[in-house]
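Now for today's protein.

===
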Amino acid sequence: QVQLAESGGGSVQPGGSLSLSCAASVSIFRLDVMGWYRQAPGKQRELVAEVTSGGSTNYRDSVKGRFSISRDNAKNMVHLHLRSLKPEDTAVYYCNSLPAMFPWGQGTQVTVSS
């Protein structure tokens, strides 16, 4: 069974930075698009950023200029660098393909608070 394992979350103050990683148990080389999603308490899961197999990226407006997504096909990993974090970025962050085809991992908690 495909497994996705997210890591790198934590608690930071507003303006801080974090780097998240996602390790896939299968090759992601042939997956056209991989994405990072997040789910805040009481809200629906939302797509935050996506990266194509060719390295093209796209971001939701609220994180543009602050988040950066990348993928390492050789290592079957997807990364998300978060900077200038805001309290509204607080959520559990997940990775998956786009559209999401695999079972969701446990995610990694990002908490932004002063």
